[in-house]
Batch of 4 targets.
Target 1
Amino acid sequence: MKIDLTETNSSKINAAMVQARRDIGTPAIGMVLTLVIVTDEENAYDALKSANDASHEHPSRIVVVIKRVSRSPRSRRDARLDAEVRVGADSGTGETVVLRLHGELVDHAQSVVLPLLLPDAPVVVWWPEGAPSDLAGDPLGALGQRRITDTYSCEEPIGALAARASSYAPGDTDLSWTRITPWRSMLAAALDQQALKVTSATVEGEDDNPSCELLAMWLADRLGVPVQRTLSAGPGLTAVRLETKDGAIVLDRADGSLATLSMPGQPDRAVALKRRDTAELLAEELRRLDPDNTYESSLKFGVTRLESAAAAPAPAPAKAEEPAPAAPKPAQPAPKPAKKAAAKQQ
């Protein structure tokens, strides 16, 4: 069921949602959180589809905030709110409100969203792209316990990681970090089976892929070893190699779906490691609403520190000390002729 509201306000939107639930015969609210999506018209459809798919695991009220660009000075002065309310089959397992903000209202989106939040329920804010530099300092971001971004959608993903690290606040997370959860789980399990000390590591993947950088920083932070970043044609992250004294532990995924795990003294094993879509990544992030300390530590390790550690030359082996040259023996006086010595004695 869909209800279109033009030049409306938050009170009328709430009343429309209550009436829509009654009309379809489901007055009870069984939603567990509010998901606020901040996006534009171009990306709203894909973001809303992913959120609806994720709502089958996490029934939620989805509030989509679309800030419309005003083309003239007069339209920028006129504040207007248009809304679309969806309940039932059109909104997954929860309910959806699509807000289109015009004019000066664009700068006060939090005042429109606040009355639409579920009472006594967590709030998660998601920017599919175009996230602010300071997530917790953003007026909409300040409403959420969790704030989700995706640095993969940035023009300079690697540079965006440094910006995220400098402004990090508990509750921030990134779908680029979520993408490497299966890789981290597989590598941690492999190291549990092999009681070997890792001496160095290599992460191979596409250029400007923040997931590769985050995995490399996680390895460097947790293992305390130099990690080298190498490039491949993809797709995405393709291989991780951990060097040990008994051989290498290698997790290689060339086709984006099936990987091969190789460990010293064991046969190679095929493991499922497919690339997941946005709905699966979003559903994983909605499972936990507490701060991710591991992500924080890895993010703050820093790409610059990672590159400098990988470029540092290995210490030269100590040379054996050369024996000191023997001291020259003192010169002995030449013996005198026997005749001269006999003459002196006479």
Note: Confidence is low (pLDDT under 50) at residues 314-346.
Target 2
Amino acid sequence: MTTPRDSSAGDAATASGMPAGARTDQRKAYLYGIATVAIWSTVATAFKLALRQLDPLQLLLVSTGVSLLVLAAILLCRHGARGVARELAAVPRRELLRAGLLGVLNPFVYYIVLFKAYALLPAQVAQPVNYTWAITLTLLSVPLLGHRVTRRELLAVAVSYAGVVVIATRGDVAALAGGNVGGVALALVSTVIWALYWIGNARSPLEPVLGLFCNFAAGLPLVLAATCIFSTLPFRAELGQGLAAAAYVGAFEMGIAFVFWLKAMRLTESAARIGNLIFFSPFLSLVFIALLLGERILPTTLAGLVLIVAGNLLQRRG
């Protein structure tokens, strides 16, 4: 998921690009938050629908291009062409370089790995495993940010990864070798890449939507080059359904959801109230996976997801 930080009310104000103490509207905050969660709940299904006709690089090319257009339109509506030009001109070159380098992580490397994981795994496996990125962030913050991990956070890590094991093995550890170990490994690697992107982006002074636009503008040429070298351009009429699903991913998962979440965090009286909404997303996602993809949701998927969410909640409260 393309999500800004939401750890505190102060972070929420910073992430939204609005000053602390700006006017709040809890009702609207909930509406934006619920809309965001609804979008996030559909993306695992959209990934799999797109991957029925497109390979991961083709999916990423279309979704990144559409996302870039959506982000550009949002920036132009907010600031106008001159305002956007002024903002870009005011950004120090080192920060633009940082944004460009972060674009290598997101969207380029992160989504290639994530989409490949979805291509190899059932959606009900890939989606919960990818949801452990916040736990991965806790682990990486120790060597990269010098944070100390508490006993509660270590317990959260153990609980979440126990959930991954339950989902990946379907409750039978001996069956892991016979399953798609590579797909599970890629889903876990995607959490590392996203956590690294989050750490690199957390202190960026860029307004969040502008920063994401710069990331995607830097990543798109890499995606295009990789698609031309390792795949083919997907713009053919017979790929219409896959292209539509990829465009949905770009417009909503990579663009509109990000902006809605920022709006929710800007308007809320408490970042924790809105942040807790995200825990509905993986369960609602399973409903779409079952209805639209026809996957039979296994009891071990639900059990593992409960453990992963419990670990995330435990980590947040630590």
Note: The chain has a mean pLDDT of 88.
Target 3
Amino acid sequence: MLGVGILGAGGIAERAMVEPARGVDGVEVVAIGARDPERARAFADRLDLPAWGDYDAVLADPRVDLVYLALPPVVHAEWATRALAAGKHVLCEKPLSANGTTAAAIADAADAAGRRAFVGFHYRLHGFIADLLDTIGSGVLGEVKLVEIDFSIPHFVVQPGNIRLDGDLAGGAVMDVGCYAVDLLRAAWGEPEVVSATAQISDADPRIDLQTDAELRLPGGIPALLRASFLGDDAGAMWVRVDGSAASLWATSVIVPQWGATLTVTSTDGSVLRSVAADPDENSYARQLEHLVTVLGDGSPSILDARRGVGTMRVVDEIYRAAGLQPR
């Protein structure tokens, strides 16, 4: 049994860990910790968890094998390092950390402790994303000419007071949803080069990008246009488009495939070559937990490994620099 201890009593902890763990064999959430132990107690009581306390209490709990950091990325390095030193494995909610330097510190700490650290890009474990990546790599599109990604949160979601608008907590649109786009580009094509970027800055905090548009160059010289935004329309966007010499690919709901993801491949003459929809009953967070049970059990490699996540954060850093902003 993989015992999970959670640091952070926010909504993501319930959605990404507590609920899916109840449907995955071999996983049990055994403790919840918060800065305010009473908040942890309320969380534990509401969700019927066996133990609660502050962060240190979770790290000291011998039943905890894996610590899930449901905390702002600016504190991931501190608490991941402490958890690893305490003999625990670590899953960091995305992004891995505030920047490439602190992300590397997490990976280094895992190596030093003989434990494993992961970043919670749960979408990568969903069968729909495996299909998407297979389709991109299959050659059906011909020579890829252009990649476009728009990950825009509806404008009414991220309002004043939201931690994603707090520069002290390493907020910003690229940090929140742009990191998914960078991770996907790296998974499909390899390491991108940042060509340029522009950002719309928050009036309340000049460190925060409300929307960033970036141009990247993928291996082989393929241009990629990326938008990460808190200013989306009422429906928002989670789409990817790939234009090739033989066909184009359009995929929706890429960040959370169980929310109705679709994939369509259309030839240059307009014929639909393939059209599929994600299984709404397949949960990416549950798949992530199943994956962690497997790789921690047999020591096999993981696409969520922190060392790989360092590369994603370094590209995020470069996008911010290109937009005239400091990395977090």
Note: The first strand starts at residue 2 and ends at 7.
Target 4
Amino acid sequence: MNAEQKSDAVRVEKLPGHIAVVTIDRPEARNAVNGAVAAGLEAAVDATEADDDTWVVVLTGAGPDAFCAGADLKEVSAGRGSALSTERGGFAGFVYRERSKPWIAAVNGKALAGGTELTLACDLVVAAEHAAFGLPEVLRGLIAAAGGLYRLPRAIPPNIALELILTAGQLDAQRAQQLGWVNRVVPAAALRDAALALAAQITRNAPTAVRESLRVARMAHELDEAALRTLTRAAFQCVAASEDFREGPRAFIEKRAPQWTGR
């Protein structure tokens, strides 16, 4: 993957330390999702998945005001709504896309409607102090059909989620952290650094072990106990066959930092 790739509406930066930053770059439209964003995010997933040197990805929005305002309703009203989704990724080319690597949402402002659904599709969340979340679709006679209606009640207590869904209310970053959805809340000026620091904590670990652990943990609400045990055994077998499985204990015995290869 190149050091920086840019589509019409999405930027991908490759940083040192096995981290990539993906930015929705439509600040003039509050980073609302149009066809270019959907295509750009799908391409960003393709690029980061294909790059063995990328171990963690941070997703954010351009500008200080909005992470993502959801679907661009101007595009929808113009009859171009189908372009806002892709076959592999669903809405924004992202919410239903299978991804093997951890994604951290760095929420730099309002994340509403599809913006909240993008956040819910990530694995971890770092939010600026002025960030807020909500599923206001019912205000427009719509529903949060990109995963929000079932992912939000999994992320926070169901009764709070139902209130947000049915009233079109908003949840500020501090309350979202108290409810266990948001991992970190930081001043806006510190958001990027905080997200990258969390990513760096992950990249200190063996990437194969991280990906296999993530694969099982993501299914915790989807499968029963027996199926999760089977999935865990398969994950362990995959990790045990890796070079890093031998490197970790060896580095511990030799009292040095491990040199992970991801193989």
Note: The chain has ten helices and 13 strands.
